[in-house]
Design goal:
By secondary structure, the chain is an alpha/beta fold. 22% of the residues lie in helices and 26% in strands. It has eight helices and 18 strands. The chain has an eight-stranded mixed sheet. The protein has an eight-stranded mixed sheet with strand order 10-11-12-13-14-15-16-17, with no helix packed on it. The radius of gyration is 18 Å and the shape is globular. The termini are close together.
């Protein structure tokens, strides 16, 4: 992996290499590092993974990139820092670009995203009553695994994506079944983005044993009080050295500045506004 600095606007195409660009790397309420939303870019294809409430603002003010340029979206779960900007994205595609936005989404999350988040603001228009399919083309991934957790797969152009169910906010401790619908993403079998997840060593080791993963972008909470929602720094430090050496931490708050992940065996912090190229 190498890094490349941002120039004048985000490159939504490249020469065919896999590239990740983090629009933000912050936790839900971060204003400095924005929220953890990222672009996957490969060849002539891009996929925006999550579009939080600050994402449209960050794209245009910090990266000179119009929201209307986004063609493909993958929402990981229905928290506002991950889907709060999707309504604007949908309306921009519909009224400005006059085409539907492609969305990589399972049927389960599609139903929740529309009925519990988007429907209130998007169902009525001058063209009549609207539905999810009025604004979006569903790119439906195929389920390839049921146990020990659900996993889905889809190719978007040259990008292979595997979505795996994560244990995020749960109504019962350590229960995947009783957690909100939330997914991590495996990209081209080699780059792992955890999405939002509790500490789940067993799942992480299972993925590492099955796929040739060489880089992990893992969410990390430094506050010390939300282990029921996110993996904490204290928990991640208990991982084997070989795993930590592949890991960059993301979804962090200002408390993170008091820590030195490199000294604890990690690759370091994920940085916003640069390209990670593979």
């Amino acid at each position: 992996m190498i890094t490349k600095p941002f120039d004048s606007k985000i490159e939504l195409t490249n020469d065919g290499k896999l590239s990740l660009f983090f629009i933000g790397t912050g936790s839900a309420f971060s204003k400095i590092n924005f929220q953890t939303n990222l672009l996957i870019i490969k060849g002539d294809t891009h996929v925006l993974v999550d579009c939080g409430s600050l994402c449209p603002y960050a794209l245009e003010t910090s990266y000179n990139t119009r929201l209307s340029q986004i063609k493909n979206l993958l929402p990981t779960h229905p928290h506002a820092d991950h889907i709060g900007g999707v309504e604007e994205l949908a309306l921009t595609a519909y009224y400005v670009n006059k085409h539907k936005l492609n969305v990589v989404i399972t049927d389960e999350l599609k139903k929740k995203l529309w009925n519990e988040t988007l429907k209130g603001g998007c169902q009525f228009s001058e063209n009549g009553k609207m539905t999810f399919d009025s604004y979006f083309n569903q790119l439906k991934p195929v389920r390839i695994l049921k146990k020990p957790f659900e996993m889905f797969e889809i190719n978007v152009g040259p990008i292979n994506l595997k979505l795996f169910r994560t244990r995020h906010v749960t109504t019962r401790q350590n229960s995947l079944k009783n957690s909100m619908v939330s997914y991590g993403v495996l990209i081209d079998n080699t780059v792992l983005f955890s999405g939002d997840t509790q500490f789940n060593k067993e799942q992480l080791e299972w993925l590492l044993n099955k796929y040739p993963i060489d880089t992990i972008f893992h969410d990390c909470d430094f506050s010390g009080y939300s282990e029921g929602v996110h993996a904490s720094y204290k928990q991640l430090k208990t991982l084997d050295a070989a795993i930590k050496s592949k890991m960059l931490l993301v979804h962090y708050n200002s408390v993170a500045e008091k820590h030195s992940p490199i000294d604890d065996g990690f690759q370091g912090f994920t940085k916003p506004g640069i390209y990670y190229e593979f």
